[in-house]
Amino acid sequence: KNQVEQSPQSLIILEGKNCTLQCNYTVSPFSNLRWYKQDTGRGPVSLTIMTFSENTKSNGRYTATLDADTKQSSLHITASQLSDSASYICVVSGDNAGNMLTFGGGTRLMVKP
Amino acid sequence: NAGVTQTPKFQVLKTGQSMTLQCAQDMNHEYMSWYRQDPGMGLRLIHYSVGAGITDQGEVPNGYNVSRSTTEDFPLRLLSAAPSQTSVYFCASSAAGSWNSPLHFGNGTRLTVT
């Protein structure tokens, strides 16, 4: 069964600090891996999409890494801001059409002043 | 630029009632889909559509119907609401056939069935 596991489930950090969120997956076949940010009461918003050939991808202060051999990904947030408080969802796609998406349960990040 | 618009934002139903959750997108996306999000679980696909007139079942389709008469609209119908359908429902769209096209989500409908 395809699974995406994220850790930690929740995290509290101080404003200005860095943090790293983890994603392990057992999805086959594999097409691409996506990270989404979901603010409370809102829909998820795309941060990055990576294929198996991409090791790292950045979007501002967000940097995602992918190790397709070990089936692990991480999302690093640099110099956190209060607005980074949200859930971060790892999604693995098994095809190009987007019909075979497996969603992780998310990591809830709280940034405190 | 509205993106994906879902209505209503909140809804309370009694067991056995029916209703339609509305979803509209203005990005001319061919692909549209419905997900439900339950506490502690990842989003699960209910139904999806790759274009007008074409729909297919996702992971958890029972109790839900969809239709796609236009590119813009993709309503989700609850036939006879059950407490197990209490959830947050998200509609999403993307450019079909593009592996690197992200899903664009609406802001959800929070449904409670009593």
Figure out the total of helices of chain A.
0
Q: Name the pair of protein chains with the most residues at their interface, and give those residue counts.
A: A-B, 24 and 29 residues
Main sheet properties of chain A: 6 strands, mixed
In angstroms, what separates the terminal alpha carbons of chain B?
A: 36 Å
**In whole angstroms, how far apart are the ends of chain A?**
41 Å
Going by helix content, strand content and strand pairing, the class of chain B is mainly beta
How would the global form of chain B be characterised? Answer: globular
Protein architecture, described:
The complex is a heterodimer of chains A (113) and B (114). In chain A, a hairpin with a 4-residue loop joins strand 7 (62-67) and strand 8. In chain A, strands 2, 4, 5, 9, 10 and 11 form a 6-stranded mixed β-sheet that branches. In chain A, strands 1-3-8-7-6 form a 5-stranded antiparallel β-sheet, with no helix packed on it. The radius of gyration of chain A is 13 Å and the shape is globular. Chain A is an all-beta fold and 113 residues long. Chain A is built from no helices and 11 strands. Chain A starts with a strand and ends with a strand. The relative contact order of chain B is 0.33. Chain B is mostly beta strands and 114 residues long. Chain B has no helices and 11 strands. Chain B has strands at residues 4-7, 10-13, 19-25, 31-37, 44-51, 54-57, 64-66, 76-78, 87-94, 104-105, 109-113. The A-B interface holds A 4, 31-32, 34, 41-46, 49, 51, 89, 93, 96-99, 101-106 and B 4, 31, 33, 40-45, 48, 50, 56, 58, 90, 92, 94, 96-108.
Compile the SSE list and pairings.
The complex is a heterodimer of chains A (113) and B (114).
Chain A: E1 3-7, E2 10-14, E3 19-26, E4 32-38, E5 45-51, E6 56-59, E7 62-67, E8 72-77, E9 86-93, E10 101-103, E11 107-112
Parallel strand pairs in A: 2-11
Antiparallel strand pairs in A: 1-3, 3-8, 4-5, 4-9, 6-7, 7-8, 9-10, 9-11
Chain B: E1 4-7, E2 10-13, E3 19-25, E4 31-37, E5 44-51, E6 54-57, E7 64-66, E8 76-78, E9 87-94, E10 104-105, E11 109-113
Parallel strand pairs in B: 2-11
Antiparallel strand pairs in B: 1-3, 3-8, 4-5, 4-9, 5-6, 7-8, 9-10, 9-11
